[in-house]
């Protein structure tokens, strides 16, 4: 045994108990569930452990404890053959006894070791009981409130402005309690007399003194009864302040107030949420504009002529405005009052931060407006390239024609058409001049008319900054122009074809 | 049941029994593990106590308590091991656990320089706050990953020597040096115990002295 120290480790059952984990008290090993409880428990329960004076008596206590423990051990050994429960109760009893005799925690935790972990006992759901109590309660309040609202409605529906008539009307709607036997105010227990007169709640008919009366303004009452206040025109003439309110008891007013509060809390949204919604809306709206702007810039830099620099500038201005609005809104959110250090405060900061980030990342990072001269240059270069391409195409067509013509004289006419097609591209490029002339000459042509209409649309769309539409319209326009050109070419072709026939 | 007679009162059980010459000599020590989170404190203890290793050891909440008994020469040594949680938010609990502890293992991760620095500050704290006779061991854990180490063996060794700590590089995964470090602590501890003779706890030593001074 002495040779290998790990001999005993091979039998872990003897040494290692269950692994305890949690907020364990280092002295009594109880799991205290949280840091706070543990520190509090430790400071309170085991403070004496620290006490220097105690340690003087420790020896005495330990000796006494030893004896007691030995006795317990003997007892336990005797009890062991008996039933398990008996043994457990014996150890429980010994725990109580020893704890009372010595305050030393060491003893206690030894006994704690002996206690087996308790299993979860019987469980029982109390939800049903809770609901059976709560539902009738809610129902009672709801029905009571509804009753009051209905009475209020009837009371206000055609309230006479004359005081006597009004009193009659009120008493008709809600019967007043007979006050002859009521000597004291049920609310404040003060006696009624000449100076303190009885008053009645207009909704429940109950009796109270003037001090205990509450007043509901007619405007509010109208709102509660969901009557429009315009109908109460005659009531506006009531002069006295008290006449323009309904006398109520505390309970009825409380019920009505609760109802209104509930209603408001359900429908009203905090200012912060409203402003935040506005911000989200703006962000959503600006998203397609951002894409469009990038598209326009790219198209401009490619030398295409669908969009102009003015378009890009206008769109950029619009985006800038939106960014400014978002910035303003988020600043406004910051100014909304909230408790310092609260979660609302954190939320406000987070919103502001995200807004700033969105503006920075999505809006300020947009490419700048390209230089007009640069665009001109690019467009020029592109045109040159196209012309170059057309020229080479022409030349190739020419060569092919010659080669073909040398080999076979038959296909002249078709080759001729091929050649013509090559040249038509060139003329399409210099389209503007002939087109201008045709618009003047042939306004009756439906195609030309269509072109003009589309041009109008494009202008309008540009003004509205609806660049998606501009793009499609521009493309349509090009197709139309091409079609017109084709037709013109065709007609001139056919006319030139007919002339030789006429000659012949 | 089997543990009760031994755990009755640390060490003194041996002193009380007249026939406890060789086998019955027993003592009990409180040992605490400290160190940054995720350096392998719980894994070390689990390896020592149960011989197990979990690749995905859960993070300890609060503290864990385990016991293990080993035999050295003719003494039965029972370790009451307090495995503290390394996460920063549990830091305030640590003094509660290392107070009155006779031994401490400060663990760091050899792949993590920060954890070594943290270990140093734990040692400093123990020197300042814990009982003066405490036996401190420094364990550089995760030694199975020594090919990607950041903390050099010599550096740690030198630090341990300067501060009078036991030092070993351990691996809870392979079991390397795990038993050895506990054994080394156990060997260093009983000497204190023998010197005290009738005194029960090693740290029960100096309170008596202080009270002697003030009460007389």
From TrEMBL, chain A:
Q: Which InterPro entries match?
A: Rab4/Rab5_effector, Rbsn_Rab-bd, Rbsn_Rab-bd_sf, Znf_C2H2_type, Znf_FYVE, Znf_FYVE-rel, Znf_FYVE_PHD, Znf_RING/FYVE/PHD
Q: Where is the FYVE-type domain?
A: 179-257
Q: Where is this region: Disordered?
A: 75-106, 485-504
> CDD domains of this UniProt entry?
FYVE_RBNS5 (cd15716)
A Pfam family assignment: FYVE
> What are the Low complexity biased-composition ranges?
80-105
Superkingdom, taxonomy of origin: Eukaryota
Identify the keywords attached in UniProt to this record, alphabetized: Metal-binding, Zinc, Zinc-finger
What would be an example GO MF term here?
Answer: zinc ion binding
Q: Which SUPFAM superfamilies match?
A: FYVE/PHD zinc finger (SSF57903), Rabenosyn-5 Rab-binding domain-like (SSF140125)
Ranges annotated as biased composition (Polar residues): 491-504
Task: Write the protein's name.
Answer: FYVE-type domain-containing protein
UniProtKB/TrEMBL annotation, chain B:
- Where does the record say this protein resides? Early endosome
- Annotated region Disordered: the residues are 1-23, 194-216
Polar residues: which segments have biased composition? 205-216
Is Transport a UniProt keyword of this protein?
Answer: yes
Reactions accelerated catalytically: GTP + H2O = GDP + phosphate + H(+)
Q: Which GO terms describe its cellular component?
A: early endosome
Q: Specify the enzyme's EC class, one word.
A: hydrolase
Q: Which InterPro entries match?
A: P-loop_NTPase (IPR027417), Small_GTP-bd (IPR005225), Small_GTPase (IPR001806)
Cell membrane as a keyword of this entry, yes or no, is no
Entry EC number(s): 3.6.5.2
Which GO molecular-function terms appear in the entry? G protein activity; GTP binding
Keywords on this record?
A: Endosome, GTP-binding, Hydrolase, Lipoprotein, Nucleotide-binding, Prenylation, Protein transport, Transport
Pfam families xrefs: Ras
Q: What GO terms in the biological process aspect are recorded for it? A: protein transport
What protein family does this chain belong to?
Belongs to the small GTPase superfamily. Rab family.
- Identification of the protein by name: small monomeric GTPase
